[in-house]
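Researcher: Here's a chain I'd like modeled. Treat it as a single chain, no partners, no ligands.
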Amino acid sequence: MESTVKLILTVGGLPKWLRSCLALVVEYVLGDPKGAEIMRLAGQNTATQFKSWTLRRDLFRQEFNDWFQQQELDAIIAPTSIIPAPKLYGTTLVSPIAATTFLYNVLDLPVGVVPVTKVKKGEGMEESRWKGREKEGYSKVILDRLYGNGTVYKDIMEGGLGLPIGVQVSFL
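Model: Modeled as a single isolated chain. C-alpha cells:
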C-alpha cells in the first residue's frame, strides 16, 4: 500500500483526541494546514454519517450535472496530474496529487486521457511558481516533496524526457 494512504488509514484509526493533537503539530509545527485538515477528517463514520455523505455526494452530482447542462458544454478538459508521469513508485508520500481526478471519480463520470505534449529537455518548475502557495490552500509538505527538497519533479525532468503529458476529457 502506498505510504501516504497507509498513513491516512493509520491516523484515521486513532482516537479523535490524538488525531486532533497530531493535526495541531502538522498545522503549527510543520506549517501545513491542509495536511492537518485531512488528519482531522480521517476516521471511522457511523452508518448515519455514511448515509449523510452519500446523500451529499448525490446532491453534488446532480448540481454538477445541472450546471454542465446549463452551460451547454460538450466536455470538460482538465489536467490529469500536476506533474508529468513519474517513475514507478516515484510518488511515495505524494498520492494527494491525484486530487485533480477525484472529482470525476466521486461524480462517477467517464473520463478519457489524451496526450498533448511530452517532457522536454530544459523545462523546469521555477520556485516562485510553488513556494508560498500553502497560503492558497495547498499543502506545504506535498509541494516541497514534489518541487523542493523532494526528488519527484527533479527525477521526472532528468529521467523522463519524452514521457507524455496529457489532459483528461470528461463527458456527461
